[in-house]
From TrEMBL:
A Pfam family reported for this protein in Swiss-Prot or TrEMBL: TetR_N
Protein name per Swiss-Prot or TrEMBL: TetR family transcriptional regulator
Single GO MF descriptor: DNA binding
Organism: Marinomonas pollencensis
Keyword DNA-binding: yes
Domain of life: Bacteria
Length: 225
């Protein structure tokens, strides 16, 4: 999961270190609430103004605090986006912890896919400005490590899920299949969150068919070995 220590620094174009860690880790209830408010408001602004026009001045104004007070919590907008991305990854990690508590070995493949797609889609729908955030994690160098952490998390955990449902392959092969699962589901979820209900339902049904066909094929080959 993301490292929130003061070691989170990057090198911007001018060669100076860009600090991504919060100024102070909030411990009091009021500070925790304020930090969360800043992150939540940034998510709302990200949806309205986009990444390029987002800055700490409009964030502070929207929160209702001075720019100096904002800097007491976060040194720059990338630190806020980093915290937002980290929080999203934590929600994904929590989902996997729940999934791994399921009786995976007893679930029919179709039921498992229904359940796992539904629970993961919720994390995409819940996160504000998810498409812009994901694009920022991929394209903004200050946030790129979050993109790698996201991929590693999903691949590692899905590889374990595949093992438990009977896909008896070398871990590298399970990770290869897990990466394919990641790429297909991740891109599809980002589309679904912006579709109307009927269109989203059809898209998810197509996604389920693709994943079920993929896993049925590999599970069948595992049983034949």
């Amino acid at each position: 999961m993301p490292n929130k220590s003061s070691k989170n620094t990057v090198m911007p174009d001018d060669g100076q270190k860009q600090d991504l860690a919060p100024r102070n880790e909030p411990v009091q209830s009021r500070s925790i609430r304020r930090s969360k408010q800043i992150i939540d408001v940034t998510g709302e602004l990200l949806e309205r103004v986009g990444l390029d026009d987002l800055n700490t001045i409009i964030i502070a104004k929207e929160v209702g605090i001075s720019i100096g007070s904002l800097y007491h919590y976060f040194p720059n907008k990338y630190a806020i986006l980093y915290a937002m991305g980290s929080r999203w990854l934590e929600s994904i990690d929590a989902v996997f912890m729940e999934v791994l508590r399921w009786p995976l070995e007893e679930l029919a493949l179709s039921e498992l896919i229904d359940k796992i797609l539904a629970i993961h889609l919720k994390t995409y729908k819940k996160q504000k400005a998810i498409l812009t955030l994901v694009q920022a994690m991929f394209s903004v160098k200050e946030l790129r490590e979050l993109d790698a952490q996201h991929d590693d998390l999903v691949i590692r955990q899905m590889s374990e899920v595949f093992k438990r449902i009977g896909l008896q392959r070398h871990i590298r092969e399970r990770e290869r299949i897990a990466r394919l699962y990641l790429e297909v589901t991740h891109s599809t979820f980002l589309v679904v969150v912006n579709q109307n209900e009927n269109r989203a339902k059809r898209t998810l049904n197509d996604l389920k068919r693709m994943i079920e066909s993929l896993l049925a094929h590999h599970l069948s080959n595992s049983q034949e070995r």
